[in-house]
Amino acid sequence: MGIIARQSIKGTIVTYIGVAVGFLTTFFVLTRFLSAEEIGLARVLLDAAVLFVGFAQLGTSSSVIRFYPYFRTPDGGTHGFFFWAMVIPLSGFVLFALLFWAFRGQVEVWFGGKSPLFVEYFPYVFPLAFGMLYQTVFETCSNVRMRIVVPRAVREVGVRVGLLVCYLAYAFRLLSTDGFVCSLCVVYAAAAVVNAGYFFFISRVSLRPDIPFLRANRTLVRSSVLYTLFLVASALASVLAPVLSSFFITAKMGLDYTGIYAIATYMAVMVSIPYRSLTAIASPQLSQAVKDGDTEQASVLMKQVTGNTLLVGMCVFLLIWLNMDLIYHILPNGSTYAVARPVVFVLGLGQLLLATFSFSLSALNYSRFYAFSLAYSVVLTVSVVLFNNWFIPRWGMMGAALGSLLSYVLYFALVLLTVCRRLHVPPFARTQGWMLLLFAAVLLVNVPLAAWMEELNIWLGSILRTVLLFGFFVLAAWKLTLSPELNALLRSSFLSRH
Question: What is the spatial distance between Cα 181 and Cα 183, in angstroms, rounded to a whole number?
Fold first, then answer.
């Protein structure tokens, strides 16, 4: 796990630098200078672009990782693999641009009543999505070359700094609304160009397609085509389900509530950030283990990644929840957004599930049983739609959060059952049970402790609860060795300084 640990830790550090920039942007720029409606417009445009990219890339993010081992040669050749990794998404972009444009009338029907501003700026989704698409393509290509830090820095730091500049320019009226939306497109286009330059700098690969190799490996070509078709369909789960709540709130409640929900979502998403870095570098190794039928190595990877992401995700969750009152206290116009306080808790639990068990989904997708996840994708999407339709009219934003959480519980229960029974790769270790008990205990103790400290200064109360409860959680995790890898890394880091 050496290279995984080193690259993932570097990636996580870079990611949290991006989080700091995002924190500054979200909590001290957006909420201070932009209205909830303007925040909602930016959020729903970005979500629409993410949705577009999820379909347009035709599964490139997963298929590149899955099939790269089959094209790689011992001398470093790739049989023109990266040519197809770049051409296939372009084809997908053209195809889905035509489909999205054909349905623009329905967009006006769905969103025109509550969110006419989104309808007005809907055409900007296309250039925004194109930049996002190739930023993702070149990042994935760098990942399979075992280099995640620079593309991660571009995504988590570069893009966020660019967006911060856009927001500030708009806040001080250096940009009109049209100019602001255009600047969002420029940021993602620049990110794609930087990622492309980095990939070609580290790889020196040929983009000439190796047609004779494909002719000699027709079974491989057929498998990759079927897998691509499968991934397009399964994008229902990976792309559509996470952003459905945003669209439902925009259509049923308006852009103001979309903006409030976006701030809550931003806080909750921080829980899953460590998972992104760890799986980005571990996924190629998992793909190789599944290809080789090495269930022992796959099981080791699954338990390590699942355990580490669960533990680190719990730490982030606790840091956010124990300081929730303080966060809304220092947030400009915090009273406007504090109505979503319980929403953050529910969304955070959903992100914890996503961070912990998404690696199991990757194992299923890399195996010959990948078709199972298509059925589960349909279950996830249908459940999100039904729960949102039922819950949002009754409970508003909390209904959207509950709908997402319940859908993820159902979805990952099916995925884990299949991984255990079909792949014979259990993702669980005994230490994870101790993590859950410890996590639940801290949350329960926080209830009376928060009530007892209610009369204290809000800063003092948050600091005391963080020191006592979070400190206890970390110390217990260390003493119980709930993550041998993290213990070893911290120990070696400490010894290297002494």
Answer: 5
